[in-house]
Amino acid sequence: MAVTSRDVARLAGVSQPTVSRALRDDPRVSEDTKKRVRDAAVLLGYVPSEAGRALSSGRTRRIGLLVTDLKNQFYSNIIAPVHDELEGIGYQLMLHTETADNETVAERLIANGLDGVILATTTVDSVAPLRLRDRSLPFVYFNRTAAYVDADATVVAPSRGLSEAVTRAVELGHRRIGAVLGPSNTSTAQSRELALRAALAEHGLVLEPDTVRRGPYDTASGDAATTELLAMPAPPTLIFCGNDVVAYGALNAARRAGFDVPRDVSVVGFDDLPPAAWPIIELTTIAYDLSGMAREAARLMARRIEEPDAPLAHVEYETSFVERRTLAAAASR
Amino acid sequence: MAVTSRDVARLAGVSQPTVSRALRDDPRVSEDTKKRVRDAAVLLGYVPSEAGRALSSGRTRRIGLLVTDLKNQFYSNIIAPVHDELEGIGYQLMLHTETADNETVAERLIANGLDGVILATTTVDSVAPLRLRDRSLPFVYFNRTAAYVDADATVVAPSRGLSEAVTRAVELGHRRIGAVLGPSNTSTAQSRELALRAALAEHGLVLEPDTVRRGPYDTASGDAATTELLAMPAPPTLIFCGNDVVAYGALNAARRAGFDVPRDVSVVGFDDLPPAAWPIIELTTIAYDLSGMAREAARLMARRIEEPDAPLAHVEYETSFVERRTLAAAASR
């Protein structure tokens, strides 16, 4: 393109670096000057070359977000706040989906010229955090963490919410309690299972092995596991689900098996995604500030890029119990 | 980084341009050479600079997808196939959300160094297509088109599905039929309304003005509109919804108002998103190949970038009627 930042600088009466700063919305440039530069750029039809900008700053102002499955409703509820927060602080979001091979994911992230990556799919044995650390590509854990590489993280503290839920369940007469947990190699499934078992122990209860299932955090997995649990001679009267998306599957399985929720079986989710409050769902669940947590991960990422030596931050989000239609008095069997 | 493509070229025994082509997976390079280059790159720990690549080719291999709201389930069902298709043909997806000001959106898209943009939020009066055309940034319409700028497009042909739905509704005794349509300035709302009215006319029926509502394609809008319709002295016995996401809102409103679906009121959606088939929802709806349509838009975008003079393609997706629980015999009132 013929028009360069020099032309814009001349017309606006500022230096060339000021032009780039103004167009980046750098706070060091006054609003007045920004307007002058923008007007000059529009008048001349100037479009900054992002590639040129990246070469001169060594930064692309692009941040990756690694998710497993873009169709999964859990992820669609974090993509929006991460995107909006990053846009507000001058970064662009690049979505990446995980393949089976973690090593390849790390290489792809590194090759894509990102300034940093928010990891939302980490397993305790993921290779990606190691590879990213070795290549000095900054990253932040969202929700799930790996065991052996420390980094900035935003995580959920499940104990309070689950403890309140169990107390209420016991009041309602539930004794035979089942669970459809997330994958064993995720920190979220581990911490929720621990918190659930601790809460049950407070009331002298246990998760009996025959009532526990584990699988991916998706609707199909919740459906399959619940179908199995409800086919048992003595099904649990209450099923704790690894998250809401799994709980939707549990509700579907119950409906298909002819079990009325909550008369015949109660279901409790985790996350309080928007559909949990819908009148046609009314899912009892564990709530926390998911949007806030996603926004915080975006902010931590930007801070890490801009201040590489900032102290590590682990931000925990507290949980609370939200009682809705899907939890009621234990079915007598 | 110390390692350059020259080092990789030397170790692999090829020219520097061959290194870039091999790492871009260019079909002109043999699989053998590609492997040799990749091995050399891995051995040396070489990571190509994307910014350098963009400067030398004039392309960024990034394609934008413009959506209104990342939380809207309709969009989460198109982001995944667009992402996957683009990744398969060597492009990266950049998400962009629309703000109130279309002019700004176009400027942002242009400034972001994209090779092209898939527009999923177009209104018939959008300014963005004009601006993009003036700046020669290639774009493809997904689902919605603008009236006055032609471009490659993938769209839905609603007539067959809606005609089948209306025929079945009439068989079931529905005569007073309402509709919660999308925004009047979208080509999708216009074509669905035309198709619905034409199908009703075949049976000597009309959409009476008092039973028609219009609003955004979201759950809140479907909920509010249906709440109004059901509060009328003579509510419609069947409500056609602009899409499934709107229909979820209609189901919520009916539940809240104490109307049993389908005993007291029937609801029909449009899109057949995955939850429509869930046992706890079982939404009667209009289906088409949404994933295929999203993938096709991605392919059309890549083709337009690579062959700017290719003839314009308008790909229409046929619809069919899917009958589930939410449609039943008309309530007698």
Description:
Two copies of one chain form a homodimer. By secondary structure, chain A is α/β, with parallel strands linked by helices. Chain A folds into three domains: 5-57, lambda repressor-like DNA-binding domains (434 Repressor (Amino-terminal Domain), Orthogonal Bundle); 62-156 and 289-317, Rossmann fold, CATH 3.40.50.2300; 157-288, 3-Layer(aba) Sandwich (Rossmann fold), CATH 3.40.50. Chain A is 43% helix and 16% strand. Chain A contains twelve helices and twelve strands. Chain A has a six-stranded parallel beta sheet, with helices on both faces. The first copy, chain A, has a four-stranded parallel beta sheet with strand order 7-6-8-9, with helices on both faces. In chain A, strands 10-12 form a two-stranded antiparallel ribbon. The model of chain A has no long low-confidence stretch (mean pLDDT 90). Chain A binds chain B through residues 23, 47-52, 54-55, 60, 69-71, 73, 75-77, 79-80, 83-84, 87, 92-95, 97, 110-113, 135, 219, 248, 251-253, 255-256, 274-275, 278-281, and chain B through 47-52, 54-55, 60, 69-71, 73, 75-77, 79-80, 83-84, 87, 92-95, 97, 110-113, 135, 219, 248, 251-253, 255-256, 274-275, 278-281.
Largest sheet: number of strands, sense, barrel closure of chain A: 6 strands, parallel
Characterize the quaternary organization of these chains: homodimer
What's the helical proportion of residues of chain A?
A: 40-55%
* Category by helix and strand content of chain A: alpha/beta
Q: State the fourth-level CATH superfamily of the largest domain in chain A.
A: Response regulator
Tell me the overall shape of chain A.
elongated
| Beta-strand residue fraction of chain A | 15-25%
Identify the most extensive interface between protein chains: A-B, 45 and 44 residues
